[in-house]
């Protein structure tokens, strides 16, 4: 056998295939991956440091810019962390509105995952289907808060405003149409033998390895680990809803795809239950205009579409946080890339990046 030298190939930073400004330095033996080292930092904006010179309220819009595909979840995690530190009680109606919004955002985020995976592997129609269905959700967000991407809708003590009269009928119409949308997407992608062969038995991550890497969210559950913060440590009012946690069997790219597809169905079920139980009442608690949390520190995490999103806040008693650190699931999940890609081909690296579903806005922070 001829012994060849390895060579280096830079994949990215470019948006197609690397999902943003991520550079993956590949060491290759022919087309086989020896190492895949992710180089991050091209989008670093110093958001955690900026928090120290902003009041607690002023920092809410910055959280929208982390995982900008699921900004509602970012708002919720941050607001619940400060509320935990201050002991703020949330009105019942606001709790339900928060659940409706973050679960709608989970569906929207997974639709972007589905479309990105499809176009990364050459199926541009899948991207158009994903954006088409997501548009219905963005219309709902536009009704609720006047924004379509960065919302700042969830606030300390509740939400910024109650729903307009046309929101619930439009939401119910979407929920009625969504099963057919999902089946159409399954028909386009899940039944596609090319997609199946590209993902099945590709980049298997066992449950043991997934925990070693610190994976959370769908990437962890695809490896068979039943860990969802909405079930394990219910926050808000998640303990009032009946839903299941989809799990994978082998932990390959196919399982990571299927788990997210099924999660959309479960999120729609949660939203339907929340709409049915939605009480009347105020949507905002009585909160001081200037927040001065007591001296101390707190950590709180939620189940965001990409995994465990956590905020650690240190308060010195002033209107501005002394320190904030964000546990970003995209950053943690990306640590699995190198070991997972070893032995695969160049084209498989794109599939691994797509099914880990990292988003560079929160990778760099």
UniProtKB/TrEMBL annotation:
Residues 120-293 form the NADH-quinone oxidoreductase subunit D domain. InterPro entries: NADH_Q_OxRdtase_suD (IPR001135), NADH_UbQ_OxRdtase_49kDa_CS (IPR014029), NDH1_su_D/H (IPR022885), NiFe-Hase_large (IPR029014). Its EC number is 1.6.5.11. Pfam families: Complex1_49kDa. Keywords: NAD, Oxidoreductase, Translocase, Transport. GO terms for molecular function: NAD binding; oxidoreductase activity, acting on NAD(P)H; quinone binding. Belongs to the complex I 49 kDa subunit family. This is NADH-quinone oxidoreductase subunit 4. It comes from bioreactor metagenome. The lineage of its organism: unclassified sequences, metagenomes, ecological metagenomes. The gene is nqo4_2.
